[in-house]
Amino acid sequence: MGLPTKPFCIFSLFLVIFTIFKLTPQAKSDSDYTKLIYKGCAKQDLSDPSGVYSQALSSLFGTLVSQSSKSKFYKTSTGSGQSTISGLFQCRGDLSNVDCYKCVSGLPILIDKLCGSKPVAARIQLYGCYMLYEVAGFPQISGMEMLFKTCSGKNAPESVSKILSGSGFEERRDTAFSTLENGMASSNGFYTTSYQSVYTMGQCEGDVGSADCADCVKNAVQKAQVECGSSVSGQIFLHKCFIGYSNSPNGVPRTSSSSSDWSPSSSSGQNVGKTVAIILGGVAGVGFILICVLFARNLMKKHDGVRLVYYDRQRFPESNSNTDSNSSETPKTNSKVYLIFNSSLHMFYPLNSER
């Protein structure tokens, strides 16, 4: 009787798993570190009728890319006098040398593609690395100046925001920030930590001293608290350091953009979509269990009270009016008879065949 339920339940289970799989955001691949975060291109282009700057820039890019297979930070300059161009690259502290090279090797192409004609200065930030260059005499900016930010979750509906953040999220985030600040003071410029499901990460530029690094990260934390408010994830990029926080084990939100005026609302959809997928998956799972229970109960009602019994002809011979009571005839060997009893009708029904 149980066999008809198996194909139905297996199909229902397959349908639920397929639905959850399609709705749940898939794990990101290792190539995410090459996703674009932002670009910064100077408005002024290089005046290079003799091609001196182009040659110096090409030489700079070649040196930076070759060094990325050996180091996670490198700073150098090419040319001389007014034609000097300085530049650097830095990879995220948790990347291997191989991944660092893969990340950095594509940056010169991106600079040319995103900035168009050669500007006097440019900076391209990917999720796993960044590169910048500037010609001699380009105006310098403070290491604490904010270049870019992302804050997600601001535009989520109130009910979804509560699910994402949970109670006391800002307090937990601030505690994680405090741990990050203390860790950066004693680290080599890169540090990750977490506190009650709030994950943070910070990194300073490779040539920044420990004290200045700690100050830069502290400044970035303060900007995150003000700029991102109650957002469940965000990134703050200062000139000499950056921090990120998130309510997921990924540490920081993985976002991409092709422009520095990217809107923070575009990254909120990922967290909202994940929450909706979890909710729908839970509802689908409960529905699957309920359907199987109801189906099983329906089958049991159909066969309620049906019992399989038998009696032994040999031990309890049937009375036969046509047979002499004094007869010594030996009962049949195959004497077991199976009956079905239906309690609702209070009647026995013999099976068609005997064992």
From TrEMBL:
Pfam families: Stress-antifung
Signal sequence range: 1-29
Residue ranges of every copy of the Gnk2-homologous domain listed in the record: 34-138, 151-250
Gene3D superfamilies: Gnk2 domain, C-X8-C-X2-C motif
Compartments (UniProt record): Cell junction, Plasmodesma; Cell membrane
Transmembrane stretches, start-end: 276-296
Biological process annotations from GO: plasmodesmata-mediated intercellular transport; transport of virus in multicellular host
InterPro entries assigned: Cell2Cell_Antifungal, GNK2, GNK2_sf
Keywords associated with the record: Cell junction, Cell membrane, Disulfide bond, Host-virus interaction, Membrane, Repeat, Signal, Transmembrane, Transmembrane helix, Transport
Major subcellular location class: other
GO cellular component assignments: plasma membrane; plasmodesma
Membrane topology (UniProt): Single-pass type I membrane protein
Family membership noted in the UniProt record: Belongs to the cysteine-rich repeat secretory protein family. Plasmodesmata-located proteins (PDLD) subfamily.
Name of the molecule in the record: Gnk2-homologous domain-containing protein
Taxonomic source organism: Solanum commersonii (Commerson's wild potato)
Upper lineage: Eukaryota, Viridiplantae, Streptophyta, Embryophyta, Tracheophyta
